[in-house]
Amino acid sequence: MIDFGLTFVSFFIGMVVGLTGMGGGALMTPVLVLFFNVPPLAAVSSDLVASAVMKPFGTAVHLRRGTVHLGLVKWLCVGSIPSAFCGVLLIRAFGDGEQLQKVVKTSLGVVLVIAAAALIFKAYLALLDRARRRAARRASGGSADDTAPAELRVRPLPTVIIGAIGGLVVGMTSVGSGSLIIISLILLYPTLKASQLVGTDLTQAVPLVMSAAISHLIFGDFQLEVTTSLLLGAIPGVLVGATMSSRAPGGIVRRALALVLLASGLKLLGASNLVLGGILLTVVLVGPPLWMLARRHHGMPILATQEKAAALTPDPDEPALDERPTGGRG
User: Is this prediction's pTM over 0.90?
Assistant: First the structure.
């Protein structure tokens, strides 16, 4: 029987995925556990099967646009596919019943907290990259070419290790195919363009999630009713979110997502409401001033709106278009 409440919630989670490219399993699984009383293993199993159906749609778009580095996808899959299949077997090694559900719930809580930290770290790396390019433009008189593609040398062994660790985490918790693996790729391949980063991560996630889903169909606790309710809401939500992505303030959505991941992780780890509220309040009050200090330290305006306004304002030290030498006939 379809749970229309779950379908309604999954629609908004799908919108977040469409807006940010991440947050599917990291939001859906804890919502199933905390608000719909779905057993942790069943939540992981059902969410993975739903993801296996949804992810190929986004992958097809990136493949058509040529924003997928297939060499990286190959080596990531070498590590992730077998380890994702083994993730659920590792969980099953802890036994059945209440003990198994407790292990899954604790593992999920730990990974969600790590995913929240990874989102913040990813934003900081993006800030460093913008500061570097800003400094390069100033040093070259505004003529630096940020769009010039850098040659990428694939490193097979570290890439396989990233895939193996990510696959194991995804198989155990359904979380990590978007957040944790993409952070690892940023660290290992800092010259990878943002569009290729998202496209490559989404493409490698398809066989990874399918492997984990097959394993959960065999050994997990898949529930067809839960998965159907998820898909009915999430698929249109993803489409709406992707349509809005060019106009919505993605930075605000990502900050809210990090806060939700942190809250969900702490709750799954057994934090009381008082402790949870204190931690979240501290993050909300202390986080923005620290971020402003970080921006200023790296030579950026303290507010993102100021950065955007500066990007649209012509540099007074740069010659106007009709004053620049053309190199043509005198």
Answer: no
